[in-house]
Amino acid sequence: MSNTTILRNGTFFDGTGSQGRITDVLIQDGKIAEIGQIPPIENAHEIDAKGCWVMPGFLDIHTHYDAEVEVMPGLEESVRHGTTTVVFGNCSLSSAIGSEQEMLELFSRVENMPTDILRAWLKDKVTWKTTAEYYEHLDTLPVGPNIASFIGHSNVRISAMGFERSLRIRKAEEQELKKMDKIVAEAMEAGYLGLSIDMLPFHRILGEYKAEFKGISVPSQQASVKEYRRLANIVRRFDRVLQATPNAVDKKSVLHLLRMSAGIFQKPLKTTIVAALDVKSDKKIHLLATTLAEVANNLLGANIRWQALAEPFLNYADGPITPLFEEFPSAVKAIGASHEERKMLFADAEFRKWFKKDWNHGGASVFPRRLDDMWIEKSPVAKHIGKSFAQIAQEEGKDALEYFMDLMAKYDTQIRWYSAVANHRPKQRLRLLSHRTTIPGFNDSGAHNVNMAFQDGSLQVLRQAQANPDVLPIEKAIYRLTKMAADWLGLDAGSLTKGKRADVVIIDPEKLKTNLGSPIEDYDSRLGGAMRLVKRSDGIVRHVLIGGEEVFNEKGFHQQLGQKKFGRLLRSQF
Predict the structure, then answer these.
(1) DSSP secondary structure, 428-451, as one string
(2) What's the start-to-end Cα distance of the chain, in Å?
(3) What pLDDT is recorded for position 419?
């Protein structure tokens, strides 16, 4: 195949925020060679982009592909939506250090990945011992998109303290802290983007190693604020990024992050926080989040960017198995139980009393706990389908919560339901996507595969910009999805200027108006035939080029995607 490609007559956006213009683009040896009128070149591969948008490939700044990249390095479900760079190692979890079992303990329950599949993915794959060796390993993988990673604090804590102490001990000993310091510093020297920490107690350990640990929050959440600050200061010293997941029901955790990021008498710490959402259970929280970030950035010299989800936070559940229920102590026990044990729990009077108390508690909650907004997609009882739990309870003349527990006791995971718990209001969602304290992201690609599918997040942003150019002009939306995100994270990606690597997506703007779809079920043999939710954006993405090579078009994927190295490992530019 020719190493020369010409993109003809597309509306070209370079990713800098400049307005689009109709022009040609010459790509040679994987880089942008010329932008302008290009004469015919013998044996060049030409792509007709007339009527389409030509732009830099998208960055997915929040993924959990750490395990999947080992066995499915093409990462097709992101590439098909125009993503050419992915970042993993988020939420304190990474594959950078640790044993297979420790990674299984960390990822399986938090990201709701089938344990047997995850075990098969990791089996005999972990050959590295240090963060530097892990990056050397990543550099050998035949990846589709470019990849980059944070180092996960939970892994760091396990490595320095041992698995059991990392879960039991809040105040690490000085010798253990020094080990953590060394690991984080070595990761920064190897080119990691920064450190990810997790304060959200709903992220829990699998408990296969020891039953007593089942449902305990991951190691990063066991740490003291002093430990977070100490490690954050190492990240600050290298001018890297702290990725943080705050405690969604304890607003003090955000204040701790503001303080860590502050630049008074020191340089600011770049801090990206998950996530600025318009939550149904608290309709003003998104305003508070952006206001706090602005105050911190303007008055305290901080450098904070919330991650913003581009679409309604639609979450699917199998019976009581959903990350949303991890905030209820009674549900935590049920989620960790077997199929038959769960049925027995929901039939037990004492457990039902406990569950009801959790459900009706008056404190802060992420999940709105509205049975009239929990919709049944699958059920052994056909008349349930398409109705809310409140509706079917009313039809049976029963209390809604009591009837929900009855159904769990009888059917457990045979009932599949969904609920949009946040980002349901278009105006507020667009405000977050365009706000100066946010970066579009939090797609969680590769995680919660049976619960949600946001792999098309960048296209969702463009669609909303297309419909609301007065709020978010399309060139600004592209900038936020590409160069702005790359520059802030310290990645050599996100723009199409002469001499830059040609990571390109070509989009049909007419099809963008109508062809974004809902999640669908997909069964992949590489997942052992297990189901996962995916998105399809048929016809919207015409072409995806990574390093100048066409890896996806309307006919499908390059036949060597996942076998040949198209992307590259991106190390921090800071």
Answers:
(1) HHHHHHH-TTEEE----BTSSTTT
(2) 36
(3) 97
